[in-house]
Design brief:
The chain is an alpha/beta fold. It has 2 domains: 1-79 and 201-246, type ii restriction endonuclease, domain 1, CATH 1.10.3250; 90-200, 3-Layer(aba) Sandwich (type ii restriction endonuclease, domain 2), CATH 3.40.1560.10. Helices cover 58% and strands 11% of the residues. It has helices at residues 9-32, 36-42, 45-50, 56-79, 81-89, 125-144, 177-184, 189-197, 202-227, 236-244, and strands at 92-93, 101-105, 110-117, 148-155, 171-175. It has a 5-stranded mixed β-sheet, with helices on both faces. Helix 4 (56-79) packs across helix 9 (202-227). The longest helix is centred in the C-terminal third of the chain and has 26 residues, at 202-227. The mean pLDDT is 91.
Length: 246
């Protein structure tokens, strides 16, 4: 029996559309706001020299692609999976700390508390302990309502195997196919997510590429002005002094 009685396909598609718009607008905003001076304060100039990078565009391409790669994973994880899981489960955005979705099934007299995560490698020991404490706090709502309480950590993609060792947990961990199947009761819902996206991503590709290309050109110009000599070669001493000097 699924957590959600049934989902509204239109609501799922709407949630995906809104999430994609948020994802691209947030990513583009970050790209548009990049500043080469702030970036190079955090980068390792010795690494670039060790890799024999000898032109501004090569360094900027490395910096920009690394920035986008790390930013897009974070932004997507924050804006996409939670609203999709809410729509798929028919639940509500939870008010309890560390819990993303609450689903109350009056017919079965069960309250489900769900923490939605991207992939299965997001926790360390401390954050896992905090998550357990959040589940414990949320369980009091079920006690007050005299309802059975079930807690889940749902990983939107990947696989999660239970080790079977240690004390029993007060929550279940489900990943990928198993998580979406638990929410919806449909074995292939995790595949349907791709289908529900349809051609929505293509709406944003042009504006994203335009933003990326503008940022690349701008950052190359800024890098050259700040860290290149008159002959166009990189002033490594100036770059290292800027990055690591007093």
């Amino acid at each position: 029996m699924a957590i959600g009685a049934s989902y509204n396909e239109e609501e799922v598609i709407k949630a995906i559309a809104n999430a994609l718009e948020t994802f691209y607008s947030s990513l583009i905003e970050k790209i548009d706001g990049l500043d080469i001076v702030k970036i190079m304060k955090r980068k390792n100039p010795y690494l670039y020299r060790a890799k024999a990078m000898e032109n501004a565009s090569e360094i900027v391409e490395n910096v920009l692609s690394a920035f986008v790669s790390s930013s897009e994973e974070t932004i997507f994880g924050n804006c996409f999976f939670e609203p999709l899981a809410i729509a798929a489960s028919g639940g509500n955005k939870a008010l309890a700390e560390g819990i993303d979705i609450m689903v109350q099934d009056d017919e079965k007299n069960v309250i489900y508390a769900i923490a939605v995560k991207s992939g299965p490698s997001v926790f360390n020991a401390d954050s896992k302990k905090r998550q357990e404490q959040n589940f414990m706090a949320a369980s009091k709502l079920a006690q007050q309502a005299r309802a059975r309480y079930e807690a889940y950590i749902g990983y939107a993609y990947g696989k999660k195997n239970e080790s079977g060792r240690g004390k029993p947990k007060m929550y279940q961990e489900l990943a990928g196919k198993r998580f979406w199947m638990e929410l919806t009761g449909e074995e292939d819902f995790y595949l349907k997510i791709m289908e529900f996206m349809g051609e929505l991503p293509e709406k944003y590709v042009a504006s994203y590429k335009e933003s990326y290309n503008k940022a690349f050109n701008r950052l190359v110009r800024e890098f050259a002005n700040k860290f290149c000599k008159e002959d166009g070669s990189i002033d490594w001493e100036k770059l290292v002094e800027f990055n690591s000097g007093e």
